[in-house]
Specification:
The chain is an all-alpha fold. 76% of the residues lie in helices and 0% in strands. It starts with a helix and ends with a helix.
């Protein structure tokens, strides 16, 4: 019901922006309406449509910190739809918008999002670097950090850089021992 109301309100607001050119009056309402529409689609797992709605909201948002927050939502929507490069770009832009005086919670979320996206499109070292920056902020400024409502992953999943493609040191050590035993066995057979 709310989505239908937003769908009918958005053209009216945009018409006011375009025809009357009263951006000071209509801009904040449009930003809020598009952001709310994105939030609704994100909550319904319609991720690409959510990202589109958030992208429209960006046109009308005047403050950098608010831009950063909406970029975080775009990044999450892209990540949840497996569009990792787009997620990476959104999280990277969010970091530039979220300055030192911005919400610590949002800055941590930007680093965590960058870490998650970097695992797919960058190197493990880059992913770890962003994770370390998030951990530093959590330790120094937000020990009771909880991700925002649009964030889906449990923190322990985010904090763990091990992936199915990554071999743990214990697994690597066990494989080395197996190889050494196999080499020893072959040398014994060869009479060395």
């Amino acid at each position: 019901a709310l989505a239908r109301e937003l769908d009918s309100a958005l053209p009216v607001l945009q018409s006011g922006m375009t025809n009357v050119r009263w951006s000071d009056w209509f801009g904040p309402d449009l930003a809020m309406a598009w952001t709310l529409r994105g939030d609704l689609y994100l909550s319904e797992d319609v991720f690409e449509t959510a990202a589109q709605a958030y992208s429209f909201a960006l046109e009308y948002i005047p403050s950098e910190s608010r831009l950063g927050e909406v970029l975080l939502k775009i990044g999450c929507a892209y990540r949840y739809s497996d569009m990792h490069q787009e997620a990476w770009e959104a999280f990277s832009m969010a970091q530039t918008m979220l300055k030192e005086d911005s919400s610590v919670k949002l800055r941590i979320t930007a680093f965590l999002g960058s870490s998650m996206a970097a695992r797919k499109v960058k190197t493990r070292e880059e992913a770890k670097g962003y994770l370390d920056r998030a951990n530093t902020l959590i330790t120094q400024k937000a020990p009771d950090f909880r991700p925002p409502s649009f964030w889906r992953e449990p923190l322990d999943t985010v904090m763990n850089l091990q992936t199915s493609a990554t071999v743990s040191s214990a697994e690597r050590d066990a494989e080395i021992e197996r190889l050494r035993a196999r080499i020893q066995h072959l040398e014994n057979i060869a009479g060395r």
